Amino acid sequence: MTANPRVVFLKRPEIGELPVVGRHIILDSSPTIDLDNVPLNGGFLTMTLMLSPEPSIRDRMRDPSIASYTTTFIVGAPIIGPGIVLVLRSERDDVNAGDYMYGQTPWEIYTVQPYVEGMFCTNFHNRPSHPREWAPDTFDMDSLALRVVPNPNGRYPLSKYISLLGTPGLTAFVGFEALVDAKEGTTIFVSSGASGLVIRARSSSMAIQLAKLKGMKVVASAGSDAKVNYMRSLGADFPFNYKKLSYDDALAQYGPIHDNVGGEALDAALDSLIPKSRAVICGVVSSDNVPPAQRYRLKNAHLIMKKRLELRGFIVPDFIPQFFGKFMEEVPALMPQGKLRSEEYLTRGIENAPHVLIDVLNGRSDAVGKPIVMIAGD
Amino acid sequence: MTANPRVVFLKRPEIGELPVVGRHIILDSSPTIDLDNVPLNGGFLTMTLMLSPEPSIRDRMRDPSIASYTTTFIVGAPIIGPGIVLVLRSERDDVNAGDYMYGQTPWEIYTVQPYVEGMFCTNFHNRPSHPREWAPDTFDMDSLALRVVPNPNGRYPLSKYISLLGTPGLTAFVGFEALVDAKEGTTIFVSSGASGLVIRARSSSMAIQLAKLKGMKVVASAGSDAKVNYMRSLGADFPFNYKKLSYDDALAQYGPIHDNVGGEALDAALDSLIPKSRAVICGVVSSDNVPPAQRYRLKNAHLIMKKRLELRGFIVPDFIPQFFGKFMEEVPALMPQGKLRSEEYLTRGIENAPHVLIDVLNGRSDAVGKPIVMIAGD
Fold this sequence. Notes:
Keywords (chains A, B): Membrane, Transmembrane, Transmembrane helix
GO molecular function, one term (chains A, B): oxidoreductase activity, acting on the CH-CH group of donors, NAD or NADP as acceptor
Oligomer: homodimer
Pfam family, one (chains A, B): ADH_zinc_N
CATH architecture of the largest domain in chain A: Alpha-Beta Complex
Number of strands of chain A: 17
Radius of gyration of chain A: 21 Å
Number of helices of chain A: 9
InterPro entries (chains A, B): ADH-like_C (IPR013149), GroES-like_sf (IPR011032), MDR_fam (IPR045010), NAD(P)-bd_dom_sf (IPR036291)
Protein name (chains A, B): Alcohol dehydrogenase-like C-terminal domain-containing protein
Distance between the termini of chain A: 25 Å
Number of domains of chain A: 2
Structural class of chain A: alpha/beta
CATH class of the largest domain in chain A: Alpha Beta
């Protein structure tokens, strides 16, 4: 028998409560698995290589009676999130031992897939809900199932499937393809990284690079000098540390802006957006971790009419059918050319996964680049 | 000589200050005019029949150094706003004595047109600005010049040119034609009339009727029982008095909503809008009359992303070139059929115009229907 530790979802945090390790999520080191003999039931056995702590994980922790954009977790089952796995054995024709796969996977080392135990939408024993019982337009996160991805064969590290080629990169890509009016010479504001404000960008690094590829000027915010340097290295024209320079002052200095991805500093952005421009709001909702009464309240909403602005909220799964093909065609080709880069911030060991997740959810991570929990590989 | 009283713009109110009669605007009864001999200089002489106090008048009072959506007034010149005039004499081929005209006109009884004294964009003696010096996308309100309108010949009162056929009606029409996703059986929330909140609808009566013509369900808010009854008479399915029932409670009861015109109770609307729907924000900015620190702050902005909402701010002049023809083709025909109705709240005498204007700007008017200052006619 082989040890198979997992990160278990213990208890739902209250509305506006930041989850706590030991109280809401916990590492359970006791499970074991017989890798050679565990029945596959027509499925396949995977070994987790990397896990991606992502903001939607917080949304999935809420009580299922609260309508939101994701289906929720089951208490007592493992956390589920995007990850990269290696196939060890398979009984399926379209999946082979040695394949790499990317998609939603439980936070444990070895898994018989497709994994159903923690999947709320699967209507089996003791499961409280069925897909059709969810509020309309709730996205079934578990439908983002594992799929085989090309073996990069050394052209890029596997971790890119979680950063540039994962949901963070796809979010920025979709934002530009579907929503941003990306015109050469216009200025875009890309925000990321602050806590306490309403909304944060999901992949500021990808957004910066896509904006530069389209010939835009980029104003970008981050919460540390190291992150500011990283943004500058990616091509941002005016990166600034919002802990040293206020959003209002920075945008007054570098603005006016024509477009806004992310909306971290949506209020300051509303003030700086030129008339008839657009704010595209995606990604993290740090407001989930703040009690409703303490949530940041927008003071510049009246400018939406005065400036004839358009605000668009989106989540990436809504656009996957339309844009995933184009994304996989264009982005991997740009990576080896060096036209799209990213840094990943690796933490090793599943035992560290709970803490890395909390750091991502509270937005206070000092990590430069996409946080990734490395289990094996690379 | 004939008396020609006028309403003069005396002093710019501070940011967030409600203008006061006697301090910021004042009736000047001293001017006179020689109706038979005043030189027309190739123009025409008009007599004002009706004036329309409108919210954009407040925006035009601001200091010109503050960028916004309108050009500003000149201190010492008359207030300018939409009105209906009768042509008394003309030296122009396309304008004849006896014609009715609708458009921007100074708040006085008799005027040699085209009027230029108070028009900020006209670059003559002692005028501080030229059109090209305004911030981009500032709309030159004075370009909404008087134009000849058909004599209704008793089919409808002239006052309809200010309500259903004027900017209030046009705003709702444009909202529906260009921006609202008006589908049969869906629910729309039309708000109006409250003070203290961010944004108010401009013509809730027209919006209600257009929504009903398109087979939508209409939830509508107003600030008095008389207004609620009026909304019900126009076809609103769930009109409510927001002074008796909170927006949150009302929308929880009558929602969820698919669309939102106006945005008076934008916050409650964000909470009630179903995912992937749209809020269209037009019309009054009562926030102009409230000090910035006391402005209503939006608590539900995070829902823009979670619900994948689209917020669209607009002002009607941006859409006039595209939609004015269709508007004048469709709406006058629907009025005699009784398919589009409106009430007008008439106050007689230019001496009452300043007070009626302030009532409109502070949103506290108890008037049911469109407030109109009647000078002569009908």
